Amino acid sequence: xxxxxxxxxxxxxxxxxxxxxxxxxxxxxxxxxxxxxxxxxxxxxxxxxxxxxxxxxxxxxxxxxxxxxxxxxxxxxxxxxxxxxxxxxxxxxxxxxxxxxxxxxxxxxxxxxxxxxxxxxxxxxxxxxxxxxxxxxxxxxxxxxxxxxxxxxxxxxxxxxxxxxxxxxxxxxxxxxxxxxxxxxxxxxxxxxxxxxxxxxxxxxxxxxxxxxxxxxxxxxxxxxxxxxxxxxxxxxxxxxxxxxxxxxxxxxxxxxxxxxxxxxxxxxxxxxxxxxxxxxxxxxxxxxxxxxxxxxxxxxxxxxxxxxxxxxxxxxxxxxxxxxxxxxxxxxxxxxxxxxxxxxxxxxxxxxxxxxxxxxxxxxxxxxxxxxxxxxxxxxxxxxxxxxxxxxxxxxxxxxxxxxxxxxxxxxxxxxxxxxxxxxxxxxxxxxxxxxxxxxxxxxxxxxxxxxxxxxxxxxxxxxxxxxxxxxxxxxxxxxxxxxxxxxxxxxxxxxxxxxxxxxxxxxxxxxxxxxxxxxxxxxxxxxxxxxxxxxxxxxxxxxxxxxxxxxxxxxxxxxxxxxxxxxxxxxxxxxxxxxxxxxxxxxxxxxxxxxxxxxxxxxxxxxxxxxxxxxxxxxxxxxxxxxxxxxxxxxxxxxxxxxxxxxxxxxxxxxxxxxxxxxxxxxxxxxxxxxxxx
Amino acid sequence: xxxxxxxxxxxxxxxxxxxxxxxxxxxxxxxxxxxxxxxxxxxxxxxxxxxxxxxxxxxxxxxxxxxxxxxxxxxxxxxxxxxxxxxxxxxxxxxxxxxxxxxxxxxxxxxxxxxxxxxxxxxxxxxxxxxxxxxxxxxxxxxxxxxxxxxxxxxxxxxxxxxxxxxxxxxxxxxxxxxxxxxxxxxxxxxxxxxxxxxxxxxxxxxxxxxxxxxxxxxxxxxxxxxxxxxxxxxxxxxxxxxxxxxxxxxxxxxxxxxxxxxxxxxxxxxxxxxxxxxxxxxxxxxxxxxxxxxxxxxxxxxxxxxxxxxxxxxxxxxxxxxx
Lengths: 680, 324
Prior knowledge:
Number of helices of chain B: 11
Number of strands of chain B: 1
Shape of chain B: globular
Strand content of chain A: 25-35%
Helix content of chain B: over 70%
Structural class of chain B: mainly alpha
Oligomer: heterodimer
Number of domains of chain B: 1
Mean pLDDT of chain B: 88
Shape of chain A: globular
Mean pLDDT of chain A: 92
Helix content of chain A: 25-40%
Largest sheet of chain B: none
Radius of gyration of chain B: 24 Å
Number of helices of chain A: 12
Strand order of the largest sheet of chain A: 7-6-10-4-3-16-19-18
Largest interface: A-B, 62 and 74 residues
Number of strands of chain A: 34
Structural class of chain A: alpha+beta
Radius of gyration of chain A: 29 Å
């Protein structure tokens, strides 16, 4: 038996023991106990391989995740060319339970090329930032593997092959597959030594440069995730985000000395080099991505937040023109942290970097582990809460993506949608229910309304349970993934109760943090905590595209003895009235509802309807007339697509119309005057 | 400048009825322009409890949902009627302006028929002036806005975030001044056409051009001051609306809004009064170079003889007691 076979045998034996003692399905595994997270190690050709069990970057004495990867990257950034030249040593722990003979890698920056799937989709279906009406060379990005060596197997660069598992686009280079000369046995470690070069585009999809700023996101070759018995390594799509395994990151960044730098994890060291550069080293534990930013003009504000697990260093990198907004950034960060820790669970990391990115860049509003970007403008007035909205949302991703690391390619609603729901809860709590986006000059606008509006536009287009790249359009993806999910969960509060929903959310977070749960993990947690079978709801709301729309169709009241005294239009006191309230289910979403009927003597009656038939009618005979009827009087059914038809007044109230019309009249008159001012 | 402003304001104050009629016309046309909006809004809002969020305060979410409803109609179907009736107001202004100039130049209360005669006589002349003004102002405004945008785009590459905005604002200020200059030019041309009974509008335009740039500082300052006052009126009006009017008090809000709009009409009439005053002061007589004036006796300023059946000018007694 030669040395290679001996090693393989030992690794196979180790992996067998590992399989026997750890759950096979890592996707459904709960957060490992510290004991389960003890590092394993193996020797490959004399080198001892392991994933570090460091805890430098977390407020925990032991690792929190089942660490699969260790990235050790040494990168040099050329600020003039916006190019990174780097070497990456990736150690991978094969916890899949089977031997692996190939490894797919994401090369995300290759998305920004004219024939890539990302650009094709952005052109046809829209994207967040770029329409690609014409190709601008500045939008070009690339990520090229110069060489790849597998320790113990030699240089395998020639074995690399671009693949397009989602759409077969031969011009797409966002996934590259490496076939190994020898499979990596279950439980074994494998180490890749990669030399690569990344050319950043002018900011696209929250990555790249703008003027002298750069946001280094998705910038290094990243291995796919073995998930549900197969490699999960999708191409980069215009609507998708990311998915990666937890692990340890050690990253050395060499940048010009004039740059102010921020990154994921904790800063370990900083050295000034003789060539005018500085090398700053960062370390991250139990994270699944690493991002960084530099700009020579950042103004830095630092403070400490005392979390449930220990102190967190808050670091705000602000644009000089936005310095007056640093307090707003800090206030919303602390307020959000408070609520997330209280409602869902502790934030275990030692740092949180909040970046105020370059203005007019497509870098605002992005989440990376322990690192988020906000979005600001020096013109933003105090009553307009865009800063708060973005910072809250991106911080929320530290939980829904950062720790509960769902598959953003396939179940985008689990991170974006749940995060939109918690965003509504936090923003409502901090800034008021209907005033959490705008509250100035007597005008208000809330986060709930925003989520509902984004959903209503595309209500019947796509179900939530759909791969992010299979949505009809970018708007449909956004409206359903963010807006509909928030509405579905807010409506769910009305079904199981707000407190139960809060307990379910906490249970879900605590159970699935540092794992890759599926949609069923989330839905079953809610059912378990609430003790209710909610399939009737999930099948329509999550797996279906049914639209919920109930309306009060009609309300009538007339004297019972109407045929007597027909000249009388209104009855005097004591007149007995026959009243009817008709309710209609306009949409195909069936849900039981409450109806409140108000009578003109102040009396209120609550009715319950299962909503199974298309319509129902409630009749009353009493000495008062119906004044109004309202579906969902507690306003819990956020999913209802039309709020106007949920109620009906018997006597019309023209005041809202008068007010609106008067505003419109003013604007019309003013425009007329302005036109006449200049034109004649 | 002060003389021009006070003289112009005096003309406005002696003819306040014009402002009232223009305000009424403005309101009436806007009522027509907003009818479709009102009808659609009634159909959706009047019987819904949800609409009450528009009354106590102003929930933008409710408005947004309303505008997005297919039953409400597209936003275009609401805005186009407003714009059409705005255009009608602009045409009406063009139609009645000659009468207003005549009234401002008169020392007596202009009878209604003289007013309308002036309007009718000068209609085609005004259309020609407006076309020429539209072409010139359009080209210059287009070039200026293009240059402003190009400068802002270039400045956008700077790392100074405010630079682009500041340059754009400075550019808009320049555009405002240039457009005001052009407005002065064509205001004087219009006044000259009407009061000089000038059939050949090109002569009025040429004469107005010379005078505009000869007295640029004086005229421009007067116009800018009045425009600033208009801006202040608008801001104060909106501030009072927000501060003094309870959100649910539609009647009071209507009153404050209409008073503001009424007051906003005054500045433009004031500018026209300034133009008439300037015309009477310096354009009434044919222009005589200073050197000639020094060597010759001062010419007697005489109003041009109106052709039979044409407009009377300053000093002519009223023909009819019936007044506008």
